[in-house]
Structure formats: structure tokens, C-alpha cells
Specification:
InterPro entries: Class_I_gatase-like (IPR029062), DJ-1 (IPR006287), DJ-1/PfpI (IPR002818), Prot/Nucl_acid_deglycase (IPR050325). Helix 6 (174-178) links the parallel strand 11 and strand 12 (183-184). The longest helix has 13 residues, at 60-72. 25% of the residues lie in helices and 29% in strands. By secondary structure, it is α/β, with parallel strands linked by helices. The protein has a 7-stranded mixed sheet with strand order 8-5-4-9-10-14-13, sandwiched between helices. A 3-stranded mixed sheet has the order 1-7-6, with no helix packed on it. The chain has 2 domains: 2-228, Class I glutamine amidotransferase (GATase) domain (Rossmann fold), CATH 3.40.50.880; 231-281, no CATH class. The radius of gyration is 19 Å and the shape is globular. The protein starts with a strand and ends in a 10-residue tail after the last strand. Helix 2 runs parallel beside helix 7 (204-215) and helix 7 runs antiparallel to helix 8.
Length: 281
């Protein structure tokens, strides 16, 4: 049973373990390479700050993939419970220990807020007034926000944060989503301005990589995606890659995604319209 209890820890570079200042008695640590001369305080100040809210009923796969992949990029991810109880009972008997409550971080400015799915969990997130105020202020400030699975239709839509946007969500909730958006999309990941949406646990890896691209940049997204060895599902064929003055330019990328849908094998080939020509001056 102990394997069902997940305490989320960063795990970017495992050389020197430095305790991060504790937030409301939560256990968090940051890993830094000893070769860097910057202090942990400086690194924390310059890292992109990400909030991942969770609640009882959250889909654990989506939450953990988002947290894990973003921490691999070097982002400073805070996992916040919508209630005062930091021990969150996610779906499928999985317990996740949050770093803080949403109320603890209500005054904090984040670079990204990413909402995992799980219908019951998203209903709990939607009903958290402190979180609603935090996210609405975040969006008003023009910052990046994202949601996967049920969250676009159950949380962002009712909060009025998808007005005029093109978005996607869990297939069974697309009709509900349509009432809140300018257009729906069946894309596995949909980017429209500062909002990123996705469909389900099976699309969350792509969703998390897309968040790194939007938050930090394409080069970091490629750096994180490579070691994850996702080629059994997605083959990323780089057409032209060259390096000049320590800057890497990518002039194109073809994504080929293959998956099973029921008993019918569907092969979808597409060009990622978010990867555009980059040239070096």
C-alpha cells in the first residue's frame, strides 16, 4: 500500500541536495549541480514558477506527469491542495501530498498555472474561490495558463477564461466545452494565445512538453523530450538542425503520431504548426 502514497519531489539534477525554504511545513527539496556558482536563492529567483493545483478526485497520472516533466525543465513547481488538507486523495486509490494549500500561495505570482483533470477533482477545484481569484488575476496579467482532460470544460469554461478561445478537452465533455469557447478542437494539444488545453491522460506527456515550449522555449522542450524516449508513439523527425555561436536553430519538425482507437488502428501524420522556421542572424 505504501506505493500508492506519492510525495512529489523535484528531481532535476541529482548532485547536491539543498533544502528549499519550507512552506507551511511541507517537505520540498531542490537539486542543483555543485558546478554552478549561483546560490540556491538566486536559482529559485530566476526559475519559472509554476502552480499545479490538486484536489480530492484529481486524475493522478495527469497531475504527476505535469509536475514531473515541468520539474525536469528546471521549473519551480508548487503543488497546492484546494483544501487545508495537504494529503489529497486522488483517483484510483492514489494519495498525493501537496507542498502547500492554495490559500498559502494566493498572493504568489506564477508564470504558469496548469490544471490536471479528473471530473470530481475539477469540480472541487472549480468550487475553490481562492483558486478562482488567483487564476483570474493570473490570466488578467497575461500569464500562461493550461488545463487537461475535464478541466477546460469544468473549470476554465465556467470561470469565463475560455471566452473567444479555441480549446479541447476530454472527448465526452466536448459538447459542454462548446458552450464556453469560440471553437472546439480535437487536437491532442491545442494552443491559443496564453492558454494551452489537452484531452486525457494519454495526451498529458505531449501537453507537458508543449507547456515547456510555451514557458521556456523550443530548445528546452527538445532537451527534456529526448530522454523520455517517446518514439514508440511519436517519431519526431528534425529536418534541419544546425548550431552557430552556441545557438541551435530548428527549421522544421515533422510529428508522426500512431495510436490505437478501440480495435481500429489509426495513424495520424501531421506537421506541428507551433514549430516554425527559426533563423540565426
Amino acid at each position: 500500500m505504501a506505493l500508492r502514497h506519492l510525495r512529489i519531489f523535484p528531481h532535476t539534477l541529482p548532485l547536491t541536495l539543498t533544502p528549499k525554504p519550507k512552506l507551511n511545513n511541507s517537505n520540498r527539496f531542490s537539486f542543483f549541480t555543485s558546478s554552478l556558482s549561483l546560490s540556491s536563492t538566486t536559482l529559485m529567483a530566476t526559475a519559472h514558477k509554476v502552480l499545479v493545483p490538486i484536489a480530492d478526485g484529481t486524475e493522478p497520472m495527469e497531475a504527476v506527469i505535469i509536475i514531473d516533466v515541468l520539474r525536469r525543465s528546471g521549473a519551480d513547481v508548487t503543488v497546492a491542495s484546494s483544501s487545508a488538507n495537504l494529503a489529497v486523495q486522488a483517483l484510483h486509490g492514489v494519495k498525493i501530498i501537496a507542498d502547500a494549500s492554495v490559500s498559502d500561495v494566493a498572493a504568489t505570482a506564477f508564470d504558469l498555472v496548469a490544471l490536471p483533470g479528473g471530473l470530481q477533482g475539477d469540480e472541487n477545484l472549480r468550487d475553490c474561490k481562492v483558486l478562482e481569484g488567483l487564476v483570474k488575476k493570473h490570466v488578467e496579467d497575461g500569464r500562461l495558463y493550461a488545463a487537461v482532460c475535464a478541466a477546460p470544460a469544468v473549470v476554465l469554461g465556467p470561470w469565463g477564461l475560455l471566452n473567444g478561445k479555441k480549446a479541447t478537452c476530454y472527448p465526452a465533455l466536448m459538447e459542454k466545452l462548446a458552450a464556453y469557447v469560440a471553437a472546439t478542437s480535437e487536437s491532442r494539444v491545442q494552443v491559443d494565445g496564453t492558454v494551452v488545453t489537452s484531452r486525457a491522460p494519454g495526451t498529458t506527456m505531449e501537453f507537458a512538453i508543449a507547456l515547456i515550449e510555451q514557458l521556456i522555449g523550443k530548445e528546452k522542450a527538445y532537451e527534456v523530450a529526448g530522454p523520455l524516449v517517446r518514439t514508440s508513439f511519436t517519431a519526431m523527425i528534425t529536418l534541419v538542425v544546425f548550431e552557430k555561436q552556441r545557438n541551435v536553430a530548428y527549421t522544421g519538425m515533422l510529428h508522426i503520431t500512431c495510436w490505437w482507437e478501440g480495435l481500429v488502428q489509426t495513424i495520424q501524420s501531421y506537421v506541428d504548426d507551433q514549430i516554425r522556421l527559426n533563423s540565426l542572424k
